[in-house]
Write a sequence for this structure.
C-alpha cells in the first residue's frame, strides 16, 4: 500500500493544530481524503472516453461523552484544515490556538500525478476486456459505468499523523438488458488494473449470458452456496448482526454472545488486514489500528465490531466512512470464513434435491428481527445430488439464528474470494467490502420469486 | 468564506478553457449541509461546506469532462483538452446556448449560510413525540437524523449562457424499532421536503409506526383476487420507477413495445404523468437544470397515452425539439444526465380517498412498502411487498402483515379505475416521485 505523500506534507503542524483544539474530556481527529476517479461509460457498442474527477476534503471531528461534532470542508491542504478546526472550535465552544502553528503555503501537489499514456493504456486494456466479454453483443443493451478510483486517506490525531494508505479499485455498475428482461450489474476489484480488467471481463461475460429457466418453487429449500455466494451469506447473516452501532444488544446475534449458534469448528473473522480483498486497510478512518475480529469461533458468538462511538466497547478499528463529509460508523471490512473438509460434489450429494447458488447480487438483513433476504442472480437446480438446469433470478429469505443452526456440519474445503460482493451500503453510506469463504450447505431457507 | 484558490477562479478557468475552436461549459456548485443525528449513543452534529467545479469541452461532436475542487480547478482545461481528441460521444452532444431573451447574469457565487441546528433539533423532538403517540409506546427510535441542505450553482458557457441559481432540501431519516409479543422489527423510513419547515413530521411518524407494527401484529393476506388500494407513498415508489421510459430517446423502443407502437395506451385514461420542477408539494424546487436550461412542466403521459419526453440538450437535438430542462447533476463531479425533478400522477381527476375506500367491496389497502419495489420495464413486470389492512365493504378491518401485489405492469397501469386527490411525494431517482391513492380492482394478490 503506497503512502499519500501529498497529504502528509504538513504533518507536524497538523498534529499541533489538533492537539491545540481538543480540551479535557474530548477526543477527536482530523481526516483528509483525496479521490481521483476515471470513469468510462460502456454500452453494447463500446467505450466512451473517460471522464475525470478529482475531489479532496478535510473533516475535523470532536467527541465528548456520547456526542460527535464533525466539520467538513473542501480541500485537503493546511488551509482547509485550519478552516475546519476554527469552525469546530467555535461550535464546540473551544478556542483553538492558531498563531504558533502557521505553516508554509500549501501547493496542491503535482499537476498530474497520473501519466497520460498510463490512462490511455488503461482505456485500451478496458476496451479489450470489453470486447472479450461481449464478442457478439447482438440482442443486448447495456449501460455500465466503469471507474478506476484512487483514494488517499490520512488521519491526524493529537499525537500522530497516520496514513490510511492509497487504495486503487476498479468498480463497475449498470444495467444489462436482454430478451425482454433486465438485470443490474455490479463489480469491484482491488487487484492491479490488468488483473482487475480481466476479472471485469469474466464477470460481464457471465452477467450477459442468457438466463433461461424458471425461478424455483416458492417455499422451503436446501441451498448449497458457492464460495462467492457464501461470502454474501456471511456478510448479511453474521457481519451486519455483529456491528456494534445497534448497541451491544441490538441484534439477534449480539444478544446471545457466548452462545453456540453454528456448527462447532466454524470460524468467521472480519479481517481488514487481508490486502488481497477490496475491504482492506491498515488504519481505520478514525485513526485506530485495524484488527482482525473473530465473530464466530467454533460456532460460538465471540466478537463485536466497534468504532470510537461504540459505548462501552473499545474500538477494534472498524470505524469507516464513505467520504470525509460523513461520520464514521461501525462497518465490516473483509469477512473471512474458515475452510472445512468437503468437496462441492459432497455438499451437492448431501443436499439431494435443492438449489446450488452460484452468485448473490445483493441482500439485506434486519438485525433486530433477524430476517434476511438474499437476491440470487445465478443458480442451478440440484436433483439427486447433481447440478441441473439454470434457474431464473429469485430471492432467498430466512431468519439469522435458524439459518445458522441449519448449516450442515461439514462445509467446503476451498476458501475463495467473493466476486459478487463489492460495495456495502448502510444508512446511505457505501464502503468497499470483501469476503472469502468456502462452499456451504444451509437447509430450510425459503425461496420466492423475484426479478433478481 | 473563500478558499485558497480565491475569487475569480471561475472566470479564470472558463477563460483558459475557451479557444482552440472548442466550446466550453463551466459549472460550479457550493453547498452547505447541516445534519443532526440522535441515536442510543448520543448525538452527532455534522456541518459541511463543499465546493466543486466541472468543465465540459465540446468540439466537432466530441465532448470531454473533467471536475475538481478549487485546489485543482486550474488544471481542468488541460485535463479536458487532453481527453478531447479521443473522446467518443453520443450523437447530438453540443454546447447549450442561452434561450431567446436570456441575459447573462455574471454573478459570482458565495457560500450558502450554515443551516440552523436549533431547527433540526426541534424537528427531531417533534418526530419523537409524534412517534410515541402513533406507536402507543410500542415503537422507539434507534436513530433519527435531520439534514438541512442549501446549495448555490452557477453555469456559464462560451456560447453566452451565464446563470446562477440555488435550491434547498431537507430530509428526516429514522430507524425505528417496533416491539410486540410477536417479537421485534426494525425499519428505516425517509421523509423529505424542499424546506425544513415543510417536513411532514407527523405523517412520517405514523408511517414509521405502521412500517414496524403492521408486520408484527398483522396476519398474512390470503392469496386471492381482490381490489387493491395503494397508499400514495406506496404508489409513488411504483410510479417513480416508470420515469426511465421517458428519458431522452434511449427508451423509445421500450415505450413503443409497451404501447404496441402507440396503438395501446400506457395506462388508464385517468392517468396523466407530469414532471414539474415547481409542483406544489414536490420535494425538488428547481429553476434550472444541470446545463442551465430553465425548467418547467413537461407532460409525459396524457390520459394514458404517451405525450412528451424528458430531454437534455443532446437528446433534444436528436429529437429536434427544445430541451425540457431535465439534465441532472446528482453530484458536481459527474457529468449531467437525464433525470426527473418532481415526476408524478396528476391528481386533477381525483376523488377523495375515502370515496375510493368506500367503493371497495373486498380488498387490500397497501399502507406501507416492506421492500424496495421490484420493477422490470423490459419484462413488463412488477412486484410490491406491502403491509396494510384488509378492506371489507368500504371499511378497513384486519391488519395485514405481508402481502404481495405483482403481475404485468402495463395491465396494472391500464387497470386503474380510481385515483385520489391526495398527491404525495417521496424521494426517488434523481428527484421526487409522487402519486395520489390508486385503485385497481380485481388484482391477483397474495
Amino acid at each position: 500500500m503506497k503512502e499519500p505523500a501529498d497529504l502528509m506534507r504538513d504533518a507536524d503542524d497538523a498534529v499541533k493544530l489538533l492537539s491545540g483544539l481538543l480540551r479535557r474530556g474530548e477526543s477527536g481527529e482530523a481526516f483528509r481524503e483525496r479521490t481521483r476517479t476515471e470513469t468510462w461509460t460502456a454500452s453494447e457498442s463500446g467505450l466512451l472516453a473517460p471522464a475525470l474527477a478529482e475531489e479532496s476534503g478535510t473533516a475535523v471531528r470532536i467527541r465528548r461523552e456520547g456526542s460527535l461534532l464533525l466539520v467538513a470542508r473542501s480541500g485537503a491542504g493546511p488551509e482547509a484544515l485550519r478552516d475546519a478546526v476554527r469552525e469546530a472550535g467555535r461550535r464546540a465552544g473551544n478556542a483553538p490556538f492558531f498563531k504558533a502553528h502557521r505553516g508554509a503555503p500549501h501547493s496542491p501537489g503535482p499537476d498530474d500525478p497520473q501519466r497520460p499514456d498510463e490512462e490511455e493504456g488503461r482505456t485500451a486494456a478496458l476496451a479489450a476486456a470489453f470486447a472479450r466479454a461481449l464478442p457478439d453483443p447482438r440482442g443486448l443493451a447495456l449501460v455500465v459505468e466503469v471507474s478506476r478510483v484512487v483514494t488517499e486517506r490520512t488521519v491526524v490525531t493529537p499525537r500522530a499523523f497516520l496514513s490510511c494508505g492509497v487504495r486503487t479499485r476498479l468498480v463497475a455498475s449498470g444495467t444489462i438488458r436482454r430478451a425482454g428482461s433486465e438485470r443490474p450489474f455490479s463489480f469491484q476489484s482491488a487487484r492491479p488494473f490488468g488483473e482487475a480488467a480481466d476479472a471485469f471481463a469474466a464477470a460481464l461475460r457471465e452477467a450477459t449470458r442468457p438466463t433461461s429457466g424458471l425461478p424455483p418453487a416458492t417455499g422451503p429449500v436446501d441451498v448449497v452456496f458457492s464460495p462467492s455466494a457464501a461470502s454474501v451469506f456471511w456478510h448479511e447473516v453474521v457481519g451486519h448482526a455483529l456491528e456494534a452501532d445497534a448497541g451491544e444488544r441490538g441484534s439477534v446475534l449480539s444478544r446471545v454472545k457466548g452462545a453456540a449458534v453454528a456448527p462447532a469448528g466454524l470460524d468467521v473473522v472480519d479481517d481488514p488486514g487481508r490486502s488481497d480483498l477490496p475491504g482492506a486497510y491498515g488504519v481505520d478512518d478514525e485513526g485506530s489500528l485495524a484488527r482482525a475480529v473473530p465473530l464466530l469461533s467454533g460456532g460460538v458468538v465471540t466478537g463485536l465490531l466497534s468504532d470510537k462511538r461504540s459505548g462501552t466497547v473499545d474500538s477494534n478499528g472498524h470505524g469507516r466512512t464513505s467520504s470525509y463529509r460523513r461520520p464514521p460508523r461501525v462497518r465490516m471490512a473483509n469477512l473471512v470464513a474458515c475452510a472445512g473438509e468437503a468437496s462441492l460434489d459432497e455438499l451437492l450429494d448431501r443436499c439431494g434435491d435443492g438449489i446450488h447458488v452460484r452468485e448473490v447480487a445483493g441482500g439485506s438483513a434486519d438485525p433486530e428481527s433477524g430476517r434476511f433476504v438474499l437476491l440470487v442472480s445465478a443458480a442451478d437446480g440440484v436433483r439427486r445430488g447433481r447440478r441441473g438446469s439454470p434457474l431464473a433470478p429469485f430471492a432467498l429469505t430466512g431468519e439469522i439464528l435458524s439459518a445458522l443452526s441449519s448449516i450442515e456440519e461439514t462445509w467446503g474445503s476451498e476458501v475463495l474470494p467473493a466476486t459478487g460482493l463489492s460495495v456495502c451500503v448502510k444508512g446511505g453510506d457505501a464502503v468497499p467490502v470483501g469476503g472469502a469463504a468456502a462452499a456451504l450447505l444451509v437447509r430450510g431457507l425459503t425461496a420466492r420469486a423475484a426479478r433478481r | 468564506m473563500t478558499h485558497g484558490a480565491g475569487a475569480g477562479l471561475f472566470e479564470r478557468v472558463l477563460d483558459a478553457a475557451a479557444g482552440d475552436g472548442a466550446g466550453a461549459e463551466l459549472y460550479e456548485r457550493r453547498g452547505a449541509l447541516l445534519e443532526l443525528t440522535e441515536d442510543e449513543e448520543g448525538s452527532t452534529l455534522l456541518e459541511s461546506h463543499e465546493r466543486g467545479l466541472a468543465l465540459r469541452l465540446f468540439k466537432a461532436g466530441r465532448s470531454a469532462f473533467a471536475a475538481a475542487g478549487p485546489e485543482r480547478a486550474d488544471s481542468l482545461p488541460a485535463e479536458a483538452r487532453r481527453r478531447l481528441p479521443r473522446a467518443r460521444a453520443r450523437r447530438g452532444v453540443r454546447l447549450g446556448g442561452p434561450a431567446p431573451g436570456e441575459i447573462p447574469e455574471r454573478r459570482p457565487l458565495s457560500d450558502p449560510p450554515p443551516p440552523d441546528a436549533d431547527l433540526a433539533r426541534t424537528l427531531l423532538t417533534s418526530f419523537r413525540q409524534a412517534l410515541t403517540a402513533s406507536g402507543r409506546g410500542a415503537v422507539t427510535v434507534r436513530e433519527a437524523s435531520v439534514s438541512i441542505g442549501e446549495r448555490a450553482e452557477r453555469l456559464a458557457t462560451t456560447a453566452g449562457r451565464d446563470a446562477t441559481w440555488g435550491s434547498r432540501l431537507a430530509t428526516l431519516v429514522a430507524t425505528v424499532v417496533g416491539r410486540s409479543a410477536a417479537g421485534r422489527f426494525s425499519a428505516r423510513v425517509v421523509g423529505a421536503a424542499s424546506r425544513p419547515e415543510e417536513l411532514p413530521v407527523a405523517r412520517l411518524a405514523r408511517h414509521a409506526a405502521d412500517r414496524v407494527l403492521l408486520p408484527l401484529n398483522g396476519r398474512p393476506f390470503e392469496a386471492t383476487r381482490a381490489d387493491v388500494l395503494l397508499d400514495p407513498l406506496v404508489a409513488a415508489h411504483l410510479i417513480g420507477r416508470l420515469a426511465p421510459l421517458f428519458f431522452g430517446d434511449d427508451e423509445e423502443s421500450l415505450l413503443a413495445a409497451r404501447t404496441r407502437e402507440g396503438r395501446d395506451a400506457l395506462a388508464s385514461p385517468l392517468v396523466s404523468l407530469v414532471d414539474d420542477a415547481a409542483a406544489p408539494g414536490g420535494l425538488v424546487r428547481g429553476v434550472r437544470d444541470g446545463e442551465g436550461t430553465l425548467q418547467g412542466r413537461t407532460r409525459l403521459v396524457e390520459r394514458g397515452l404517451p405525450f412528451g419526453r424528458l430531454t437534455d440538450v443532446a437528446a433534444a437535438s436528436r429529437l429536434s425539439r427544445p430541451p425540457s430542462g431535465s439534465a441532472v447533476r446528482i453530484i458536481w463531479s459527474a457529468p449531467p444526465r437525464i433525470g426527473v425533478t418532481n415526476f408524478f400522477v396528476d391528481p386533477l381527476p381525483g376523488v377523495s380517498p375515502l370515496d375510493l375506500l368506500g367503493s371497495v367491496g373486498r380488498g387490500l389497502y397497501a399502507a406501507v412498502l416492506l421492500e424496495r419495489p421490484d420493477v422490470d420495464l423490459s419484462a413488463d413486470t412488477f412486484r410490491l411487498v406491502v403491509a396494510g389492512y384488509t378492506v371489507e365493504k368500504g371499511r378497513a378491518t384486519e391488519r395485514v402483515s405481508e402481502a404481495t401485489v405483482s403481475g404485468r405492469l402495463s395491465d396494472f397501469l391500464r387497470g386503474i379505475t380510481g385515483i385520489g386527490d391526495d398527491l404525495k411525494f417521496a424521494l426517488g431517482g434523481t428527484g421526487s416521485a409522487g402519486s395520489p391513492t390508486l385503485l385497481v380492482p380485481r388484482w391477483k394478490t397474495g
